[in-house]
Amino acid sequence: MTLPPYGLCLPCKYRRCRDGDTVEISVLGADRIWAIRLIDCWAPDRNEPGFKEAKAFAEEVLQDADHLSVYVPAPRDTRNLLANLTFDRVPGWLFVGTEDTLNAMMVHAGHATEEKRRGDR
Questions:
Q1: pTM of the model as a whole
Q2: Could you give the number of structural domains in the chain?
Q3: Residue 113 contacts residue 47 (beta carbons within 8 Å)
């Protein structure tokens, strides 16, 4: 039997997009807003070509979504989950429905790359 990767998967509600690879969500039943940095998704930053298109694509997908859930991977030593924070963002995958992730949709639509580009944070 193969064990699933460590992590946390919860249903969530879309709040807003900061850009094409950072989305603000709230976990259902909670008031706190979390910024999720999409893993394996590097969209253009503000003032770069394609920024507006990437952000608009993400907004359109999320506004039309019937079901969203966020999966946040955790280290095996789960005593310090917040060690994964990058700036004020939590790295994760945002599932749209049951199979697709916004992370992959952004890449497949050409609005992001899977790997960090030179000069990206």
A1: 0.84
A2: 1
A3: no
